[in-house]
């Protein structure tokens, strides 16, 4: 009997100390009239790294043009980083972007922007 009381009080104490899950935390209320529905946008990109060569394929499944650019940071301090030019990924089109470093690649990412 004493064991179950101790277990119950310990369980309650632990439950009070644990933080609330993210879904249960308070959120600011926004009225439906104030929000505008966002249209889906943005090409999906896959990056392939082969040695010091980088190739990115970006496919745009949406009806609005997405402008994409490939950025490469090289691992060596003396190797030149590159920011590619903007390429239009038209609706239902796949574009290929390429770049390279002389030695190892440090990081790679693709930027997106809406056509003006």
Automatic annotation (TrEMBL):
Signal peptide from the UniProt entry: 1-28
Highest taxon in the source lineage: Bacteria
Keyword set includes Signal: yes
Alphabetical keyword list: Signal
Protein name: Secreted protein
């Amino acid at each position: 009997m004493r064991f179950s009381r101790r277990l119950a009080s310990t369980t309650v104490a632990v439950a009070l100390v644990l933080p609330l899950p993210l879904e249960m935390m308070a959120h600011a209320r926004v009225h439906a009239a104030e929000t505008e529905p966002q249209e889906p946008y943005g090409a999906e990109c896959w990056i392939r790294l082969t040695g010091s060569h980088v190739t990115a394929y970006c496919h745009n499944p949406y009806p609005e043009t997405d402008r994409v650019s490939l950025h490469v940071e090289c691992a060596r301090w003396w190797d030149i980083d590159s920011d590619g030019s903007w390429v239009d990924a038209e609706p239902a089109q796949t574009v290929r972007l390429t770049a390279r470093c002389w030695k190892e690649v440090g990081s790679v990412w693709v930027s997106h922007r809406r056509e003006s």
